[in-house]
Amino acid sequence: MKPSNIGGQAVIEGIMMRNKERYAVAVRKPDNEIAVETSTYSSFFPWKGISKVPFARGIVAFIDAFILSMKTMSFAASFFDYEDEEDDVKDKTKDDTNEGEPTIIDEEKQRKKERNDQIFQGLAMTCAIIIALGVFIALPTLLSGFLRGIIESRLLLAFLEGVIRLSIVIGYILLVSRMKEIRRTFMYHGAEHKCINCIECGQELTMDNVKANSIKHKRCGTSFIFFVVVVSIFFSFFITADSQLLRVLIRLAVFPFIAGVSFEIIRLAGQYDNWFLNLLSQPGMLMQKLTTKEPDDDMIEVAIVAVEEIFDWREFQGRDAVLENTWEVTSENAGDKK
Fold first, then answer.
1. Alpha carbon of residue 67 to chain centroid
2. What is the 8-class DSSP label of residue 218?
3. From start to end of 128-281, where are the E strands?
4. pLDDT tens-digit profile of 251-266?
5. Which of 237-244's residues contact partners 24+ apart within 8 Å by CB, and which partners?
């Protein structure tokens, strides 16, 4: 497999694909049409050179992915905001005289809505970070602290803390996967992986080829979470304290470094294909069974649209050169016949 370095994520009834600074979000609307938004995203970090600094680039990539995720999720959700759609219909019926012409009131409403959306996204992002750090970092540390009076081995305590952390993640995934909308999102997640695998295996991006590929991928965010848990066990063993509060604060402080190390592992696994990295990737790939499901044809179609908006897979695979050479050979043969 040849790494393409494109990535993506599933959103509500759609998929976001990203290639460097360009990204595209394709969403299957309630009327069955596919809406596409293509734009660029610049890192929140002003110094571009950090993307080449090992470990530090992982921290930046993690934060960038989170910010872009919130933004693209908001775009996808906008097509399923039924209350706003009903209000739009009411406003349209009230203003028959200026049909098709935006009024000052309409423009003010739009600006107000955009401001509210930005405020909401900021608050949602802050709350999500606090909850994630509290549940994923602080809670396992506190729970493992109750065992310190029983277990003296630091290695065993660090391992148990990692087991608790992984159990919380798996339990959360199993809980939310009971929701119909989340199950469909996991199916879109599978469609995203199938498209990337199809391209990186050198196959033409068609429905049949995509369907034949795997729903698992070594660069998946689910694998990233698994490596975060494993790396955190290593850090927990070497960095500890007697005070339970201090242990929690240390875990929170070193989490960016844990994310940076985990990113480098995922990056290596995605770039190289050898037995060691493949073996190292297996637990994370196994965990992907929880977050990826087989998609239907409509979902694959959405994924293909998202990919083609931001990535020239033909050029990546060298297909343009092959077609050009084939045309030249055919033309020469035709000239010989003449």
1. 11
2. T
3. none
4. 888 888 999 999 999 9
5. 237/154, 237/155, 237/158, 240/154, 244/141, 244/142, 244/145
> What pTM, to 2 d.p., does this model score?
0.81
Q: Give every CB contact of residue 242 below 8 A, 6+ residues apart in sequence.
A: none
**Could you tell me how far CA 106 lies from the centroid of its own chain?**
35
Strand 14-19 with 34-40, pairing: unpaired
**What's the CA angle centered on 225, arms 219 and 228, to 5 degrees?**
110
How many CB atoms sit inside 10 A of residue 230's CB?
Answer: 18
Both tokens of residue 324? 């050009």
Q: Name the residue with tokens 């290596």.
A: 268
**277 and 311 inside one domain:** no
- pLDDT band (50, 70, 90) for residue 30: very high
Beta strands in the chain (DSSP E): 7-11, 14-19, 22-28, 34-40
Tell me, yes or no, whether 202 lies in a domain: no
Q: Is residue 99 part of a domain?
A: no
Query: Diameter of the chain by CA atoms?
Result: 92
What is the number of alpha carbons within 13 Å of residue 305 lying toward its C-beta?
19
How many contiguous H segments (helices) and E segments (strands) does the chain have? Answer: 13, 4
- Based on the structure, what is the number of domains in the chain? 2
Q: Which of 28-32, 56-60, 139-143, 188-192 has the lowest mean pLDDT?
A: 139-143
Residue 330 belongs to what domain range?
1-94+296-338
3-state secondary structure of 5: coil
220, two tokens: 């998946």
CA distance 120 to 117: 5
Six-digit token string for 274: 């050898």
Whether residues 258 and 334 fall in one domain:
no
CA distance 234 to 51: 25
